[in-house]
């Protein structure tokens, strides 16, 4: 049966991740930092391999701790290069992304070919590149739920300051809001979501769960509170549909399927929403004839 216990374990994990990523992703889209999320998503992979090499274990919590440490290093490095050089921000992101992800692949090849690491099964390490949601167990889902609830609680707690910082930086500065701290908090929450989402979606695709729902939601409303709800629901629905299709159709990976569903929803929203291209085209065309 499709709707069995194992389906709901995976579906629950991906849906909660999708909802939370959709909410937090709105801040990334509004701040126009989508590429930063993609960079961090790729950059955490060597942390997983390094943690495996050091501790000789595939325990999820250990591997994800390594990913968090390396993700913070990557974030610090981006800020350091940006502060002390005149390179374009996009160039810095491209440099960090390619360097860290290449390091992860290099470390994986070392693990694969070195007899010292053959005592522990390392095959699952490669799943963190593209994700392997179908093999998530209850403990993995519990970790996702715990992290997502903490992230959502922090977001709700700081919501007034976050909203002001996103939309009126001058006013935020005038009332004493530390914008740098808020930005770091948002990026830290994104990092934790990226890390716990690696097993479900993978390093290459995880940024899509942050960016795509918010991009689609932005086409349907100009209200930020409504955008948060719509983005979260899009992430959750896409996760459920992607999980359902990958369960029903054999040999289809869950993570990529979820991202494809998100992409289709985003494309539909960009074309056919009230703020979308088609409505804008006809409005402009009609106005031009008048």
From TrEMBL:
Transmembrane spans: 6-29, 61-80, 92-111, 143-164, 185-207, 227-245, 252-272
Bilayer topology: Multi-pass membrane protein
Gene3D superfamilies, sorted: ABC transporter involved in vitamin B12 uptake, BtuC
Keywords, in A-Z order: Cell membrane, Membrane, Transmembrane, Transmembrane helix, Transport
Domain of life: Bacteria
Pfam families to which the protein is assigned, alphabetical: ABC-3
Main location class: membrane
UniProt subcellular location: Cell membrane
Coiled-coil intervals, chain numbering: none
Family: Belongs to the ABC-3 integral membrane protein family.
Protein name listed in UniProt: Metal ABC transporter permease
């Amino acid at each position: 049966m499709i709707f069995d216990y194992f389906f709901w374990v995976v579906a629950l994990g991906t849906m909660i991740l999708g909802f939370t990523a959709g909410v937090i992703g709105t801040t990334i889209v509004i701040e126009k930092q989508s590429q930063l999320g993609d960079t961090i998503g790729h950059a955490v992979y060597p942390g997983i391999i390094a943690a495996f090499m050091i501790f000789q274990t595939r325990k999820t919590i250990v591997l994800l701790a390594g990913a968090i440490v390396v993700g913070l290093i990557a974030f610090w490095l981006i800020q350091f290069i940006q502060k002390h050089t005149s390179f374009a921000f996009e160039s810095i992101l491209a440099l960090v992304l390619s360097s860290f992800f290449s390091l992860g692949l290099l470390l994986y090849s070392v693990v694969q070919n070195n007899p010292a690491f053959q005592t522990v099964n390392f095959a699952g390490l490669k799943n963190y590149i593209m994700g392997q949601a179908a093999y998530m167990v209850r403990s993995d889902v519990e970790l996702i739920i715990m992290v997502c609830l903490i992230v959502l609680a922090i977001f709700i707690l700081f919501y007034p300051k976050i909203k002001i910082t996103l939309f009126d930086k001058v006013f935020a500065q005038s009332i004493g809001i530390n914008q740098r701290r808020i930005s770091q908090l948002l990026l830290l929450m994104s990092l934790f979501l990226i890390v716990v989402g690696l097993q479900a979606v993978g390093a290459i695709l995880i940024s899509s769960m942050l960016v795509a729902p918010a991009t689609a939601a932005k086409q349907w409303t100009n209200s930020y509170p409504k955008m948060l709800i719509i983005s979260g629901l899009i992430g959750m629905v896409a996760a459920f549909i992607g999980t359902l299709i990958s369960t029903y159709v054999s040999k289809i990976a869950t993570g990529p399927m979820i991202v494809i569903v998100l992409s289709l929803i985003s494309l539909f929203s960009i074309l056919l929403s009230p703020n979308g291209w088609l409505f804008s085209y006809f409005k402009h065309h009609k106005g031009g004839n008048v």
